[in-house]
Design goal:
single chain; 182 residues; Rossmann fold
Length: 182
């Protein structure tokens, strides 16, 4: 079975540029590639893949944004007997093929993706710092209603109950409780 994986970094980006050709099943997500653990479609694809399958990805930086993640994902799939093909780099990795040149290219391209991500983060940090000095940057609005946490706490609910009711982590509840007591 040919399995496709497509990813863009944000909701407003389009997946159409990543033409995978003819595939039997496609896993797609619009999330940052910074972490493997927070990418449900990637994890579902790895879980779904079976021995003899081929995973098609448009380019290395769509699969992972750092060298270690890329190596780990390819190794996990290869360990399951799944080959991984990157279309734009024209690279394919299988359990039976031990091509040192392909491995070198994977490492180099993954390292470039990681480097690019680092540069983007640094530029973003510099831009935010400049915007703060101009008084333009306010940060993103809070995603947790601190008033609701305080209200539920006053009603006698414990941190676990509050976290479950609001769909947030207990650590967030504790942090808000601590800041309101300070």
């Amino acid at each position: 079975m040919k399995i496709g994986y497509r990813r863009v970094s944000s909701e407003d980006q389009n997946l159409d540029r990543q033409d995978l050709g003819q595939v039997d099943k496609v896993f797609e997500e619009k999330l940052s590639g910074a972490s493997t653990h927070n990418r449900p479609a990637l994890l579902a694809m790895i879980d779904f893949a079976r021995e003899g399958d081929e995973c098609i990805v448009y380019s290395i930086d769509r699969l992972a944004r750092d060298l270690r993640d890329c190596q780990d994902i390819v190794a996990r799939l290869n360990d399951k007997g799944v080959s991984v093909a990157f279309l734009s780099e024209n690279l394919k990795f299988t359990t039976s093929d031990d091509d040192p040149f392909s491995k070198l290219q994977l490492h180099l391209m993954s390292a470039f993706a990681e480097f690019e991500r680092s540069i983007i983060r640094r530029r973003q940090k510099e831009g935010i710092a400049k915007a703060k000095t101009k008084g333009v940057y306010k940060g993103r609005p809070p995603s947790i209603n601190a008033g609701k946490v305080a209200e539920l706490c006053q009603q006698g609910l414990g941190p676990s109950d509050i976290a479950r009711d609001l769909g947030i982590s207990r650590a967030s509840v504790y942090r808000l409780m601590k800041s309101s007591n300070a």
